[in-house]
Design a protein that fits this description.
220 residues, alpha/beta, 5-stranded parallel beta sheet, 10 helices, 47% helix, globular, binds norvaline
Length: 220
C-alpha cells in the first residue's frame, strides 16, 4: 500500500532497507522509479561514488576488497565485473560473498574480461592493488555478532604493514562509518582521509546523476 500511495505523491523513491526482498516488494507495486539506497545484498549508489573516486584518484584498476563478504563486497563485484576490472575479494573463511552473486559476477566477467578472485588471504588480495577497499565488519542489524566477528576477522585490518604490499600509489576507499582499529587502522585512515572524504562527497554528485537520468527516462 505504501508503494502505491507514495507513487502518487513523489517522482521517485530511494529506499534504505535491511532486506533486499522488502525493496523488491516495494518496487513491484510502485509506479515510480525506486533506487536501492542500501540493502543487505547491495549498495549500488555507494559504488557509483566509489567508481567516480577511482576515476579521479586511482592510478590503475586492480581492486582489493578486504573484509566481510557483505553488501559492499557484492556491489564491488558487480562494478568490477561489469567494467572489466580485476577484483580480489578477501574474507575470512565462512564470510565469503554469496555464491549466487559470485556466479553473476563470473558471468559478467565473460563479457567484460574482468578478473575475479575470491580469497581468504588479505595479503594475496592486496599485493600490487591500485584500490584498497573495505567496510565495517558489523553491518546494520548484526550488532549482536560483534564479539564473534571481531575474533574471526583477526588479520584482516588494513594497517600500514598491509598497505606496504599494495601499489605505492594505491588509494584507500571506505563507505563509512569506519571503525578505526578494526577493519582499518587509524594511521591508514588518516593517511587516506582525503580520498575517503572525496568518496563520501561523490555520493552527492553520483546520486544527483542517477536522479537526472531517471527523470530523463520518464517521457521515453
Ligand atoms: N555494510 C554496511 C554498509 C554501510 C554503509 C551495512 O550494511 O551496514
Amino acid at each position: 500500500d505504501t508503494a502505491r500511495v507514495l507513487s502518487g505523491m513523489v517522482d521517485m523513491a530511494m529506499l534504505r532497507v535491511y532486506k533486499q526482498s522488502d525493496l523488491n516488494e516495494f518496487a513491484k507495486f510502485a509506479t515510480i522509479p525506486v533506487i536501492n539506497g542500501l540493502s543487505d545484498e547491495f549498495h549500488p549508489v555507494q559504488l557509483m561514488a566509489d567508481f567516480l573516486t577511482m576515476k579521479e584518484r586511482a592510478s590503475g584498476e586492480t581492486i582489493a576488497y578486504i573484509g566481510d563478504g557483505n553488501n559492499m563486497a557484492h556491489s564491488w563485484l558487480m562494478l568490477a565485473s561489469k567494467m572489466g576490472f580485476e577484483i580480489r575479494v578477501a574474507t575470512p573463511k565462512g564470510y565469503e560473498p554469496d555464491r549466487r552473486i559470485i556466479e553473476i559476477a563470473l558471468q559478467n566477467a565473460k563479457i567484460s574480461g574482468a578478473k575475479i578472485s575470491i580469497l581468504n588471504d588479505p595479503k594475496e588480495a592486496i599485493s600490487g592493488a591500485d584500490v584498497v577497499a573495505s567496510d565495517t565488519w558489523i553491518s546494520m542489524g548484526q550488532e549482536d555478532e560483534k564479539e564473534r566477528k571481531v575474533k574471526n576477522f583477526a588479520g584482516f585490518c588494513i594497517d600500514k604493514k598491509m598497505m606496504e604490499l599494495a601499489h605505492k600509489k594505491a588509494i584507500v576507499l571506505h563507505c563509512l562509518p569506519a571503525y578505526r582499529g578494526y577493519e582499518i587502522s587509524d594511521e591508514v585512515f588518516e593517511a587516506h582521509a582525503d580520498e575517503i572524504f572525496l568518496e563520501a562527497q561523490n555520493r552527492l554528485h553520483t546520486q544527483k546523476g542517477v536522479m537526472v537520468w531517471l527523470d530523463s527516462k520518464r517521457n521515453d
